Structure formats: C-alpha cells, structure tokens
Amino acid sequence: MKKKLFYTLLIFSGIIVFFPIIYSFMSSFMTTKDIVSGRLIPSEINFINYRELLKNIPIFQFFLNSFITSITAMFFQIIICSLTAYALVFVEFREKKAIFILIMCSIFIPWEAIFIPNYFIILKMRLLNTKLGIILPFLANGLGIFLMVQQFKTLNKSLIEAAKIDGCSHLFIYLKIVLPLSKGILSTWGIYSFLNVWNMYLWPLMISTRPESRTIQIGLKMIKSEEGTNFGVLMAAVIIVIIPSLIVLFLGQNQLQKGMTSGAVKE
C-alpha cells in the first residue's frame, strides 16, 4: 500500500513539474485562437509558428551564440577549477591556505556586487558585443574549485605518492590519475556551468547590443516584444530554448547524482 501511494505521489509530482513544458510544446503547434480559447491539445498539427519564428527572428544565430559561450565557459571552468584544486591538494607551497581562504570568500560575494566593475573591465578591454566579453567573468568559479578540492582529498594518496616516486610529473599525475578518478565531479560541474551560462540573461544583455552577438535568452525577450500576442510563436521559441537544457539534464542525470554525493563519505 505504501509503495503504491509513493509511486502515485511521484507520478502526480512529475505531471505537475512537466505540465508547463508539455503545454508549451502543445501550444507551439496551435494557432493563437486555440491558445486563447484554452485548448490543451491543438485542433490540428501545423508548423506555422516555427516557420514564422525562423522567418522573422534570427533564432539560430541566438542559439549558436548561446551554445558557443556555454560550451566554452564549461570547458574553461572544468580545466581552471580542476587545476587550481589539484594545486591546493597535491602541491605544497606556503600561501596555500591563504589562497584557499580567498577562493572561499569569493563564493560569498554576490554577483550584483561585482556586476558594474566587470562591465567597466569589459568596456576598457573593448570586448563589448563579443562572445569573449560574455564568457570572460565565468572562466573560473570559486564553488567549483571548492567542490573539486573536496573530491580530490578523497583520492587514494598512495597512488599519488607512488607516481611521484616513479618520477611522474604533476601534469602526468593530473591527466592520468586525478582526472580519470574524478569523472563524477567533473561531469557534475560541467552540467552546472553549462546550464548556468546558458540561462544567463542580465549579463549578456549588458554586454551585447547587436543582434548578431546576442544569446538565446535575450532573443526570447526580443521575440516577446516583437510578436506581441502571438503566443504560438513565443511557445515555439520557448521549446527551442529549453531543448538543450533538457538534453543535458537527462543525459547527465546519473553523473549529476554521483557528483553531488562524491566526497561525502571518505573511505
């Protein structure tokens, strides 16, 4: 009885969570008349909303800009965070504790507090309306470094010591031992950083003033402003926006769960 109740609650919760996505998908094939009338299923399947979207808005340019910035930021965050964590765990130097404390302090600084300084830095570097200008403040992350430090501390130190005795360099140990044993946290942080940059709105809005450099979230706002009450076109754009997020979440679900629990228990 308890098991049936448990699964019933799970199914009910799943319907509530996914209903907006399902309705958006259905609405993307509806006419404005069907949407306003409150229909849940389109009277007929047509792709007019997608045709209008591709005709009037450079949605694929926005999509490509977001994809490039998200993938690039994810790659550099994984590399920079893991290298920093490796140095803090496996390399002995005098300023290690001070640097780690500074990194930890950076986690507690709200983004709004450094938003304007970052903008002026990008302005002085003449990187407005460039993908690099969007990515630059997100090449590293204090939280990612902290999580990887905790993961690296759980690794078997005897493997590292044996590699050092055999004359292996830090680069070899990092690439051949540490990274392969830390796939969980690397995948988790990759998913997190990708979705974080993909869903950014305010920072790309400030940095990019031209349509050719804008990301998908800004494009979605432009579509809402230009199309007005054409909800079908807006829902078609929403579906295009959320597809990458859903794919990343579904494909990386197992790694995400493993990464969130890795380092919680030391053997």
Automatic annotation (TrEMBL):
Membrane association type: Multi-pass membrane protein
Localisation per UniProt entry: Cell membrane
Domain ABC transmembrane type-1: 63-252
Listed Pfam families: BPD_transp_1
Membrane-spanning parts: 5-26, 62-91, 98-120, 132-150, 171-195, 231-252
Keywords: Cell membrane, Membrane, Transmembrane, Transmembrane helix, Transport
InterPro entries: MetI-like, MetI-like_sf
Family membership noted in the UniProt record: Belongs to the binding-protein-dependent transport system permease family.
Protein name: Carbohydrate ABC transporter permease
Species, as recorded: Candidatus Cetobacterium colombiensis
